[in-house]
C-alpha cells in the first residue's frame, strides 16, 4: 500500500509590500517629497529681482540708514546677522531663503492644524500637499520676500483662532501674530474673510457666549498695541520722516489694491491654475459642496470665508506668482471640505500621486544655472568697485552699495513718473553716482530709442550724457569722444577720471592714455585732437573684468 502524497507547501513571501492605497504613509511621503523639492528650489533657483530688493533693504538697515517703517520690520531681524555672513549678496539671499523655508514649514503646520478642525488628519495632510505642490508656491514658497513670513504668522494665528477658546495666552499670541503681520505687509487685511468666518463659527461652538466676542476685541487691541510698539521701535530717531513715508506707502498701496477686474493678470492666473490643478479642482468644488452640505450655517460660512481669498487676483494689483504663497493657505484649509469627495472616489494614494506629479512637472522644467550668471555680474561689479559707491539699477542687486534710485518695477516706474520731476538728475546733483548697472536693460533700450517713456526727459538726457558702457551691463560715469570731437561736458559726477585711448584735451591741458584728472561739477571743455575715439571715465584706471558678460540672467515668472 503506497502512502498518500503530501502536497508541497508554498513558502510565504517575506518581502516588503506597499502600504494600502488608503494608508496615511502616502500622505507623509507626499509632504516629504514636496519639502525636498522646496528645499532644492531654495538652494538652487535663480534670485528674483524682488529678492535682491529685499536684501538691499536689509543692508540699508545694517548701515544705519533710514528705511520706510511700514512693510520692512523683517529687515531688523536679518540686519543683525545676515550681512556679516560669508559670501556675496547671492549667498546671503540663499541663506535667507532657508529662513523662509522654516516659515513655509510653519505655514504647512498651520494649514494642517486648521484643516483638522473641519476634517481629519489625512484630509488635512492632503490639503497641505495641495498647497505645497501648487506651481507658484513650489517656485516662490521659500523666496526671500515678505510673503512666506506673513503667511506663517497668519496661518498659525488662524489655527489658534480655530482650535482654542481664546483664553489669555491664545489672545496674546493671536494679537501678537496679527500685529506682526500688519508690520510685515499691509496686505494682511486680505485674510479678513478667513478670520471673520472662523470667529463666527467658533462663537457658535461657544454657544454664542457674550464673552467670546470680547476675547476677539482683546486680541484686536493686542494686535494694535504690538503693531504700534513695533512701528515706534522700527522708526525711532526719524519720526517725522517715518510719518511722511508711511502716509505715502499707505496712499499708493490703497490706490493699487482696489480695482475690480481692472487689475486681473490673466496670464499669471492661467499659469497658476494650470500648474496647480489638484488645488484648483478642490477649490472649485468648495462652493458647490458647501451649498449641498447639511453642516451648520456658521460652519459653512467659515468655509466660504476661508475660500474667498482665492478671488483676490480679481482686484489686487500685485497678484504676481509670489502673491499666491501668501493668499492660498486659507484656500487650502477650505479645500478640506471638498477633498474627501475626491479621495473617496479616487483613493488617497492616487490623489497624492497626482499632486506629486503635478509638482514634479513644475520642478523639473524650472530653469537651472541662472544663479551662476547672476554671480558673474555681481562679482564683476565688486571687481570694478572694491569699495561701495552710489549707483543706479533696477532692483538693488548690489546690496552693500547705496542704491540711489527707486525700485524700478512697473509700479515703481509709475510712481516715479507721477512726480513729474527729474528725480535721477536731482540725485546726481546732490551726490556722486558713478555707477549704473543696467540689469533690466531699460537704459540700453532707451539709448537705442526702443523705449524712452520710462524716464523723465531730463533724467534720460542726463544719463545719456553721463554714463558709458564699461563691461557688459556695467556703465560708469564718463564720456566718449570721436576723433576731432569737441564738447562742453556737464560733469554730474565729480571725482577722479582716467583717460583711455588717444590724447584728450581737458581745458587747456593734454592728458595721455592712463593719466588721471580730478573734475568738479559743472561745464568742462573736452577735445579729442586725434583721429581715433578716446574715453574719459570715472575712477583711477578701473579694471575690466576678464569674464564674459552674462546674458539672460533672470528667470521669468
UniProtKB/TrEMBL annotation:
Keywords: Membrane, Transmembrane, Transmembrane helix. The chain crosses the membrane at residues 16-39, 93-112, 171-194, 214-233, 273-291, 297-316, 323-342, 348-365. It comes from the Bacteria. This is Glycosyltransferase RgtA/B/C/D-like domain-containing protein. The lineage of its organism: Bacteria, Pseudomonadati, Pseudomonadota, Alphaproteobacteria, Sphingomonadales.
Amino acid at each position: 500500500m503506497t502512502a498518500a502524497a503530501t502536497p508541497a507547501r508554498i513558502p510565504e513571501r517575506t518581502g516588503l509590500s506597499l502600504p494600502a492605497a488608503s494608508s496615511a504613509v502616502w500622505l507623509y511621503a507626499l509632504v516629504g517629497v514636496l519639502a525636498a523639492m522646496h528645499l532644492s528650489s531654495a538652494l538652487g533657483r535663480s534670485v528674483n529681482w524682488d529678492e535682491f530688493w529685499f536684501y538691499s533693504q536689509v543692508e540699508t538697515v545694517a548701515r544705519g540708514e533710514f528705511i520706510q517703517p511700514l512693510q520692512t520690520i523683517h529687515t531688523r531681524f536679518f540686519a543683525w546677522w545676515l550681512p556679516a555672513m560669508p559670501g556675496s549678496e547671492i549667498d546671503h539671499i540663499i541663506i535667507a531663503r532657508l529662513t523662509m523655508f522654516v516659515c513655509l514649514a510653519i505655514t504647512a503646520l498651520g494649514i494642517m492644524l486648521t484643516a483638522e478642525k473641519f476634517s481629519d488628519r489625512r484630509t488635512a495632510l492632503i490639503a497641505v500637499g495641495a498647497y505645497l505642490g501648487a506651481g507658484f508656491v513650489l517656485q516662490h514658497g521659500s523666496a526671500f520676500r515678505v510673503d512666506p513670513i506673513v503667511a506663517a504668522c497668519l496661518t498659525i494665528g488662524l489655527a489658534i483662532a480655530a482650535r482654542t477658546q481664546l483664553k489669555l495666552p491664545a489672545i496674546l499670541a493671536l494679537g501678537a501674530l496679527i500685529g506682526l503681520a500688519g508690520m510685515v505687509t499691509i496686505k494682511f487685511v486680505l485674510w479678513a474673510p478667513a478670520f471673520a468666518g472662523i470667529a463666527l463659527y467658533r462663537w457658535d461652538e461657544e454657544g454664542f457666549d457674550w464673552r467670546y466676542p470680547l476675547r476677539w476685541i482683546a486680541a484686536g487691541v493686542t494686535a494694535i498695541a504690538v503693531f504700534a510698539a513695533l512701528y515706534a521701535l522700527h522708526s525711532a530717531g526719524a519720526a517725522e520722516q517715518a510719518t511722511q513715508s508711511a502716509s505715502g506707502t499707505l496712499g499708493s498701496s490703497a490706490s493699487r489694491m482696489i480695482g475690480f477686474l481692472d487689475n486681473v493678470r490673466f496670464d499669471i492666473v492661467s499659469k497658476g491654475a494650470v500648474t496647480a490643478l489638484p488645488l484648483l479642482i478642490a477649490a472649485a468644488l468648495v462652493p458647490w459642496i458647501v451649498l449641498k452640505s447639511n453642516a451648520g450655517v456658521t460652519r459653512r460660512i467659515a468655509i466660504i470665508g476661508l475660500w474667498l481669498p482665492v478671488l483676490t487676483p480679481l482686484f489686487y494689483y500685485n497678484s504676481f506668482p509670489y502673491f499666491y504663497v501668501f493668499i492660498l493657505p486659507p484656500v487650502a484649509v477650505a479645500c478640506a471640505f471638498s477633498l474627501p469627495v475626491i479621495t473617496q472616489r479616487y483613493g488617497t494614494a492616487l490623489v497624492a500621486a497626482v499632486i506629486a506629479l503635478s509638482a514634479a512637472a513644475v520642478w523639473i522644467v524650472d530653469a537651472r544655472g541662472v544663479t551662476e550668471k547672476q554671480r558673474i555680474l555681481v562679482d564683476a561689479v565688486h571687481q570694478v568697485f572694491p569699495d561701495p559707491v552710489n549707483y543706479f539699477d533696477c532692483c538693488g542687486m548690489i546690496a552693500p552699495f547705496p542704491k540711489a534710485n527707486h525700485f524700478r518695477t512697473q509700479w515703481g516706474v509709475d510712481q516715479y513718473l507721477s512726480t513729474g520731476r527729474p528725480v535721477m538728475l536731482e540725485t546726481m546733483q546732490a551726490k556722486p553716482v558713478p555707477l549704473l548697472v543696467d540689469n533690466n536693460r531699460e537704459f540700453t533700450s532707451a539709448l537705442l530709442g526702443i523705449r524712452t517713456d520710462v524716464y523723465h526727459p531730463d533724467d534720460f538726457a542726463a544719463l545719456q550724457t553721463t554714463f558709458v558702457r564699461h563691461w557688459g551691463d556695467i556703465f560708469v560715469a564718463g564720456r566718449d569722444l570721436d576723433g576731432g570731437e569737441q564738447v562742453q561736458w556737464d560733469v554730474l559726477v565729480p571725482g577722479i577720471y582716467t583717460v583711455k585711448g588717444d590724447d584728450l584735451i581737458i581745458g587747456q591741458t593734454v592728458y595721455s592714455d592712463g593719466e588721471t584728472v580730478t573734475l568738479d561739477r559743472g561745464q568742462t571743455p573736452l577735445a579729442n585732437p586725434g583721429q581715433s575715439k578716446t574715453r574719459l571715465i570715472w575712477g583711477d584706471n578701473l579694471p575690466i573684468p576678464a569674464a564674459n558678460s552674462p546674458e539672460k540672467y533672470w528667470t521669468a515668472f
